[in-house]
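N-acetyltransferase domain-containing protein structure dump, as promised
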Amino acid sequence: MSVRHASIEDLASVAYLFDLYRQFYNQPHDKSGAEQFIRERMEQKESEILVALSEGEIIGFVQLYPIFSSVSMRRAWLLNDLYVGESYRSRGVATLLLDAAKQVARDTKSKWLLLQTGESNATAQALYIKNGWVRETDLFFRFDI
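structure tokens r here:
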């Protein structure tokens, strides 16, 4: 298995997995919407998408969005999406993707990586803790538009 940056040639495979990722979070199947969304992120260079491959097939991805820390005056990253195809889970693919995300942060001299997962997603929480992520206890607020 290996990890590399996604290219526009990977659009169909990444969009397919992105659609499955959204369905995991109870969103309706939307192949064309997923493809359009991922295409826009790639073309507008609004995110970093890393893909995991096994025998040339894309089996998972992670998507990072750039943000900034004003206090430290440095870049930071929001790890917004992580998904591994069902038949490839529990094989270390997610750890490879998390390690690649950490490397992007190091390479860009970032202050930190941030992620959020569902309160009921115990599997993901255990994965993050196992890979050195620290649970934050700060209060977060959100305003839905």
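The domain at 2-130 is CATH 3.40.630.30 (Aminopeptidase).
lmk if u need the other ones
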